[in-house]
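Example 3.2
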Amino acid sequence: MLPSYDENFGNSVVESLSTGTPVLVSREVGLADFVSKHDLGWICHPEPASIGAAINQIAMSETSRLAEIRKIAPAMVRDNFQGSWLTKKYIAMYDHILQA
């Protein structure tokens, strides 16, 4: 879970998914779009009510989705977060910062 108010990337999201662990993140996490696009977890708001509702939904009715995410997430991470890809992404981010 990373229901953060502000998270630029979210390394723990990639680490969790790489082991097949589904994630619950807030929209403010940099990887929320990736999680949503690839259906690798759930998105919530960083408030207790939203987090609780998401956890309850997952526990009550998402067991088949949990199993599917466990199967597909490790390969999805390998395909999308190879070292060379991350290096390019970080360089682009630092270049953007230096341009500002």
